[in-house]
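User: Hi! I have a protein structure encoded as tokens and I'd like to know what sequence might fold into it. I'm fairly new to this, so please keep things simple.
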């Protein structure tokens, strides 16, 4: 079963948990969650696919769990979606109704199925088929309209169980995070993980340092922006010393933040790698090495390899860069309504092309260089990873944030350009930052230009939107 610990039989045997989910300051016991979500399931059961406006609320939690109980495919919708994106998601997904709250304005009219927090039902539903679709998650749409990623119940089970093995995740843990509930990180790992393993979840709403410090959990999820803010608040960071694991994902964690977090909390953070299409395929382990700038080893059931632009094998020597390909039981079933894009994403011998470039060392440890389209820079005959240059820039005491891209250049093909946010009161000149990188790395990797910004453009998961930086 997908939510093996969340069922009436477990509650009947005395396995109720009074604080199974805490969100919006409201606490649900496991039995309350089952009863309320089953009531939602009864109202939604006749639908095939429903949209959920996935704000971090109790309504979203009950809507998601209700869909899983009834076997209805859920389409989580980011609550800040623009009009065009919202209309695309609804039309492309074929959602038949809103489950819970509907947006105030939307050009696609759908009926609304209410989610009543205090209603209860104890109707029993048969477990849906493992191969049935649990979610359609829409990608960030950096290369066109967002694509719907179809994830089966079996894939989610395989992905979560692999993480439980890697992170020693059990019912004794208490997970804390304040992540969005429309993405793999916050929704599948951060909500379904605790429900599957019986570990209480505390959702903090906004992921502030103060909220994380007050929660007193054993596991914490955060994106790099969250961890960067926590290390700037040493008192809150030190409050996490009693935790078991601090886990970072959705974007690379800058090495200086990794080191400062380890210094303040006593915990080297766990980093992991994944995407909507694959869930988490690579991670450092609770009982293993945690190396700054590296995301670890394939999780249980996953294989990985590197390929060059001609499809040839790239050596696992810790230096050679190649396109990362993976395969395993937690991968998606395809892009909804996009057989062309689905076919293009797979090799003839059954490996998924992630679109990311990476380095793998002789021991199997992975370092993600970034997206092949934006983070692999081909300049003057060299292949340069943007992440390496960003790490060097972040090592300068005046630099708070950095993003590096390759922009067209008539002579070099692409020139390395850095966009930086300086720390408050800092006044480093671009020339000094260029010289700093040239002193840290090979000279050909230095930025040719440095642009100082007030802030970097980011999406809801904290990822820098480099496509916006590449625009004139």
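Assistant: Happy to help. Inverse folding works backwards from shape to sequence: for each of the 472 positions I chose a residue that suits the local structure. Here it is:
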């Amino acid at each position: 079963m997908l939510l093996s610990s969340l069922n009436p039989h477990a509650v009947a045997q005395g396995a109720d948990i009074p604080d199974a989910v805490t969100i919006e300051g409201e606490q649900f016991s496991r039995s309350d969650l089952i009863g309320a979500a089953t009531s939602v399931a009864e109202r939604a059961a006749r639908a095939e696919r429903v949209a959920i406006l996935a704000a971090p609320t109790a309504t979203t939690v009950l809507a998601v769990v209700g869909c899983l109980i009834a076997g209805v495919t859920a389409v989580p919708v980011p609550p800040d979606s623009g009009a065009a994106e919202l209309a695309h998601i609804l039309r492309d997904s074929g959602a038949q109704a809103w489950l819970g709250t509907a947006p105030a304005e939307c050009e696609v009219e759908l009926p609304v199925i209410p989610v009543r927090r205090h209603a209860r039902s104890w109707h029993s539903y048969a477990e849906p088929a493992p191969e049935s679709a649990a979610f359609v998650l829409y990608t960030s749409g950096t290369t066109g309209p967002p694509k719907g990623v179809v994830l089966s119940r079996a894939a989610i089970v395989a992905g979560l169980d692999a993480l439980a093995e890697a992170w020693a995740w059990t019912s004794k843990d208490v997970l804390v995070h304040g992540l969005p509930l429309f993405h793999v990180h916050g929704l599948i790992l951060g909500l379904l993980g605790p429900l599957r393993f019986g570990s209480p979840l505390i959702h903090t709403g906004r992921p502030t340092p103060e909220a994380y410090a007050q929660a007193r959990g054993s596991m914490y999820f955060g994106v790099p922006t969250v961890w960067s803010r926590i290390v700037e608040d040493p008192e809150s960071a030190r409050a996490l010393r009693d935790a078991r694991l601090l886990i970072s994902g959705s974007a690379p964690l800058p090495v200086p933040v990794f080191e400062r977090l380890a210094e303040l909390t006593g915990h080297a953070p766990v980093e992991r790698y994944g995407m909507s299409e694959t869930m988490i395929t690579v991670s450092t382990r609770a009982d293993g090495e945690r190396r700054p700038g590296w995301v670890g080893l394939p999780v249980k059931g996953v294989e990985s390899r590197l390929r060059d632009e001609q499809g040839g094998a790239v050596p696992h020597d810790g230096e050679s860069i190649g396109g990362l390909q993976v395969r395993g039981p937690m991968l998606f079933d395809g892009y909804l309504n996009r057989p062309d894009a689905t076919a293009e994403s797979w090799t003839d011998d059954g490996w998924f092309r992630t679109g990311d470039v990476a380095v793998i060392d002789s021991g199997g440890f992975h370092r993600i260089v970034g997206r092949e389209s934006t983070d692999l820079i081909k300049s003057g005959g060299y292949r340069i990873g943007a992440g390496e240059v960003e790490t060097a820039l972040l090592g300068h005491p005046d630099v708070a944030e950095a993003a590096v891209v390759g922009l067209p250049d008539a002579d070099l093909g692409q020139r390395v350009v850095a966009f930086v946010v300086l720390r408050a009161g800092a006044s480093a000149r671009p020339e000094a930052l260029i010289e700093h990188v040239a002193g840290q790395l090979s000279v050909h990797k230095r930025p040719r230009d440095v642009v100082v910004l007030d802030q970097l453009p980011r999406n809801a998961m904290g990822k820098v939107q480099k496509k916006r930086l590449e625009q004139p």
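A useful reference point when you look it over: The domain at 8-191 is CATH 3.40.50.12780 (Rossmann fold). Feel free to ask if any position seems puzzling.
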